[in-house]
Amino acid sequence: MAAKDVLHLVPPLVEAGKFNDLVKAGQTISSALCPSDNTVLVFIKDKNPSVSEEARATDEEQPLYFASLNAIPSSERRLLLTDTLIIFTAFQKLLQSAETREPGWLQSEQCLTMIRKLAIDYVNFIKECWVHASQPIPRVDGTLQFTGDHYRGLYTCFSLFVVLYLPEPGYEQAPVGDELMEWLNTHFIEPSTEEGDQLSALDRPWEDESFWPYLTRSILRGLSKASLFFLAALEHHPSEKLQRLTSTVIPLIESQPRLMNFTVEREFAYAMRRWGDKVKALRIEMDRVPEKERFDRFENWWERLSDIVGILEGRQDVVQRVCDDLGADWKEVAVAWSIFVDPRMRRQDMAEVAAQILSEMPPDPTQHEDMVHAALFSGQPIEALHHASNLDCWLSAHLGDIMESLQLIDAEPKDDSGISLRDQYVLSYAEYLHSDPALWRITVDYMYSCEEIGQRRADEVLLRVPLQLNEQNSDLKVDPRIRAGDIVGVLKDVNKTCFEYKRENVRRTVCRIAAQALVSDKDYGLAVSYCISAEDWLGLGRIVDRVLEEYITDGPQGFTQYALAIAPSVQELRAQSLIQGVFMHRLIFVVRYARFHELVQKRHYQDAASDLMTIFVEGIAPTSWWAVVLCDSVQFLQYAPTLLFSSSAASLLLQRLEDIFTRTSQGAGADYLSVLTRVIKSKSEREAVDQLKTVRIALARYFARSLVSRGIGP
Amino acid sequence: MIQTGLIQNAHGDLVTDASYDFYGLRLATCSLDQRIKIWQLDENNTWNVEDDWKAHDAAVSRLSWAHPEFGSIIASSSFDRTVKIWEQTSISQADSQVNGAQHGSGGFNSRWVERAVLSDAKGTVRAVEFAPHHFGLKLATISTDNLLRVYECSEQPSLNTWTLNDELDIQSMALGPSPGHVSRAHTMALATPTQTNATLEGANASLVTAALLQQTATNAPAPGRPGNREADGGWCISWCKDKYWGEVIVAGCGTTGIIKIIQLNSRRSATLLTLSSASNTAYNSVNSAVNSSNAAPADTADARSSSTSTNANSSSSAITSVSWAPSCGRSYHLIATGGRDGHVRIWKVKPGSEDADIENAGDSDGEDAKWTAIAVADFEQHKSAVGRVEWNITGTILSSAGNDGRVRLWKATSGSVWRPAGSVCVEQSEEPSQPESKDVEMDT
Out of A62, A72, A519, whose CB is closest to B14? Predict the structure, then answer.
């Protein structure tokens, strides 16, 4: 799949073999890898770093090139990738459920039936892809990325795997010949229908040079209808001997025992033996034909018929020679072997026979498909996977997945890479999927089906799925649905995937990133809920600081709005008592202080004053904010219609005020006055102190008023 | 391989670095023209310039994106001896803070604002890389003064204040707990908000003057050092992406073919392992060669003398680029290096046993307490100096770029054997009429 070749980028910068010219001019090549799809970014950079402080004013156009290991799957290919995921997922669920059952259940008849069913689902789906890709219809996205022939190759390999390794339960020990022949006849149709049509149109077909090969191959392939038709034609052959022999052959072909017609293998074997006896009788009859009568006007019909009888007799040398003559390959020999030479051949016997045949008729090393077939016939699943990966990483991944469950390959890593063979192929397929970021769901599904290493790779991919919190790339505003508190779109999908595969660390990081994005949009309320979801208390602290910063830079109005947005979350946090201490105080302070300002805006002075007092009574305000809150108290102290504070409350205010003065005189002014200094947009602490002096005066007056009013009272 | 895109006219001069953001949706590029450009990928898979500004007073050497949980932040290192921190802000905020003339033509929805200037380096800064996010908002830099500096942002979200947590002399830093360690943590307010308001040019001019003055003071060629040391050397860093081992970084500097794996520690940073390209050996605090039967025992002195001899004839062994692969659940680490000797090497590094006390690593007698490494791949295909190596996010694909004009990709095949996985070049194809040759098998 991934071509190990050289890609020449366009437009080229130099002629072939002339890169050194660029190097001499002080330039070289460099690259960067894209996190979303492994795209290679290529650019030309300066070879020797320049210390020059002059910006060179050249007008050279410097391009950036992008190249990828794999082409993004086209629509027809994507169909295969997305739809076979459903089967793959069903298979993973089956494996998971096996873990909860008794050991060995995976190899039980019940389970094997299900595995077989899913494998056949794969086969049927590839067949559909093949049919679809073979249709001569105009395509929206131009030419096909993979030809119909490519899918046909996948089809033949996968279905052969099912025939050889996933027999119907109960038939593991049954002869395999019929099934193999069906496979061969389905995928490698010989002799061709056209040839048959052409011959059947002739009055004396035996005069055509293709007649005998056609008939022989029909019989070799067990195509009784075609064989019988042309054998019937031979009854009109001028040779009487041949006519008579033909009339013996026809019932033999008609009555060749087929396993499927027997319920008990013993009966099949018995029928085979009796049938074999009849073939022997035919041979004796043939041998009685005198040498001189064995020819017609064209050729030696006797030898041709002898080949056919030789096949029926199950003679290895004849089968092999005939196949060679017919231009058939090792597959045909191996399958014919399982029908004629050893009709009771079991699956496990095939490896030995295939090895023998392959040693004389090797597979075509340039044809990955043929190599996969050969490895499957030879009982070498590891080899088969290797060649399958050369054909299509889809094939090796899905074959490997099933092979491990059937214990055909080792589930343990065979080297210190820590990756089993199955995982290796599944991960290599996942890496191919990763070349299209839009396929991230499928990519991580495959990766998470692997052991630790694969899962950790999936984490990296999942973390980098763009959350698309912003409605449009060009706009930094957050999607209104997300703003409304809904987890929608990609964020929702990513969250769901994290839950599904229990990737809490990933989920938390994603929440932290989402919170950060929301903070930069000043959507503090939602940001806080994401921080809480990520249990990111540090981040939560930063958001609180940001909200307080809003007060410092823009005053109470905006601050109130932002702070009240985080109030519900704070309420929730307090209820769950998830976090404690100073930090919680700061959160509560922000909310209470915002509520205070809201009350002030609404002119609910009595309530506002009481809230202000609560801030000091509960001791939730950070010391750096005392001065600011005290300054806020001035308007209440001076409120003419009534006294808003009790005398003890006013005393507490005075106490805090004096604390600040004392500490400031001791040199700790920065701790107490820094915020106020910034709020009043001043540069010096002195102005802050001056501001506090007005609080002191207001307090003094308040005490005076208070005394007077109490004095008058009862 | 197939070509998937092209930006015809990305910069007006040679590009010096390009770096993708966390998601691969944005791209920061910088150039000899001293400008940084930020590109954004739109829905139609087209890269559009999001912002473009003059960033430094000399060429920009490297760019690094901070993890998105800290916001949209990049750091740039430059030949003007500074590292700058930039943050993306929405346009309304940017208007009040940035001198618009600094930026390219208008129409951008966001602006990148300078937040801090780190100007401790006594040489050109060659690399900058943000630490993995679990260590907080930190970054490491390396400059031609051979010092590795680690900074931590001490004031989020304003990004104005960065603390120099560590300053380590890579060359003289001995193996094990280091006497050459010159850590001196101090806090510097590098760019106050008022400074950010000032025009960038003004601020930079003074910094450059300071840098030039320092140059005259410190950069007189030291005796025995070749004058073109800067051009022949290599300065590179890469963080270990894992959280488990604490803050670990690999760094190389100067003209030696040596890189060091350093454990950063608030009290005492230490070299865990030294990897020498000259003999493909690794050695740690106990002076025995590890995992390499034929390698002679080496200690710091040996390493120094060999580097001196290298200096004498050529600088061929300098490591120009190092990349620490994400371990992704593996029991070992992979570190790739590219050097002026034309080699791309992959080191398989095994951490010491977990109960090993780093401070006492030198006294520890258990072999498994030490970090060990072997070179698992050594490719010479570039046949000329290699300038860049980089891992993909899963540590499964390595890319390397060399003076042969090729960017080569490498992948592990079964049995953990690393093999070529394709390459790209900017030379004209020999047979332009022929489509790319496919599936040339290179397997044995």
Answer: A62
Q: How confident is the model at residue A531 (pLDDT cuts 50, 70, 90)?
A: confident
Stretch A152-165: mean pLDDT, rounded? 97
**Which B positions 11-50 lie with beta carbon below 8 A of chain A?**
11-25, 27, 29, 31-34, 40-43, 47
Range of the domain at A58: 19-67
- Quick check: is A308 in a domain? yes
* Same structural domain, A322 and A183: yes
What average pLDDT does chain A have? 88
Tell me which of A213-217, A269-273, B196-200, B326-330 is least confident: B196-200
Looking at the structure, do residues A136 and A105 belong to the same domain, yes or no?
Answer: yes
Q: Hey, are the CB atoms on A37 and B24 less than 8 Å from each other?
A: yes
Is position A295 within any domain? Answer: yes
The chain A residue lying nearest B420, using CA atoms, is A4
Which strand (E) or helix (H) includes residue B408? strand B406-413
Amino acid in the structure at residue B367: E
Q: Which residues of B touch A51 (CB under 8 A)?
A: 58, 79, 124, 230
Tens-place pLDDT, residues B101-144 = 455 445 566 789 999 999 999 999 999 999 999 999 999 999 99
Tell me, what's the pLDDT at A485? 56
Q: Do A309 and A338 sit in the same domain of this protein?
A: yes
A56 and A79 in a single domain? The answer is no
The DSSP H or E segment spanning A85 is helix A75-99
On the question of pLDDT at A398 being above 50, the answer is yes
Q: Is the domain of A151 the same as that of A293?
A: no
Mean pLDDT of A529-539: 85
Q: Is A519's Cβ below 8 Å from some Cβ in B?
A: yes
Contact B416 A417 (CB under 8 A): yes
pLDDT band at A452 (very low <50, low <70, confident <90, very high): very high
Average pLDDT of the segment spanning B63-72: 94
To the nearest whole angstrom, how far is the Cα of A30 from the nearest Cα of chain B? 5
Contacts of A416 in chain B (CB under 8 A): 331-332, 416
- Asked if residue A301 belongs to a domain, the reply is yes
A97 and A182 housed in the same domain: no
Give yes or no for residue A162 having a pLDDT over 80.
yes
Q: Hey, what domains does chain B have and what are their CATH numbers?
A: 10-202 (2.130.10.10), 221-429 (2.130.10.10)
pLDDT of B200 over the 80 cut: no
* pLDDT grade for A714, boundaries at 50, 70 and 90: very low
Residue A652 and residue A659: Cα distance in Å, rounded?
10
State the DSSP H helix or E strand holding residue A593, giving kind and residue range, or none if neither. helix A582-601
d(CA B267, CA B269): 7
Q: Is the pLDDT of residue B368 over 80?
A: no
User: 10 Å Cβ neighbour count for A11?
Assistant: 10
> What span, in angstroms and rounded, lies between the C-alpha atoms of A586 and A581?
9
The predicted model gives A463-492 an average pLDDT of: 65
Q: Which helix (H) or strand (E) holds A516?
A: helix A504-520
User: Are A249 and A293 part of one and the same domain?
Assistant: yes
Contact assignment for A69 to B409 by CB distance below 8 Å: yes
Interface of B with A in 102-161 (CB under 8 A): 109-110, 124, 126, 133, 156-157
Chain A, 522-541: which have a CB under 8 Å from a chain B CB?
A: 539
Beta strands (DSSP E) in A555-630 are none
Q: Count Cβ–Cβ pairs < 8 Å, chain A vs chain B.
A: 348
* pLDDT at B344 > cutoff 90: yes
| Cα–Cα nearest to B225, from B128, B101, B311, B332 | B311
Q: If DSSP codes are grouped into helix, strand and coil, which group holds residue A393?
A: helix
Residues A165 and A184 in one domain: no
Of A12, A57, A456, the CB nearest to B426: A12
Of A392, A427, A448, the one marking the end of a domain is A448
**Residue A662 maps to a domain:** yes
Residue B18: which of B86, B74, B69 has the closest Cα?
Answer: B74
CA A492/CA A471 separation, integer angstroms = 15
Tally of structural domains, chain A: 4
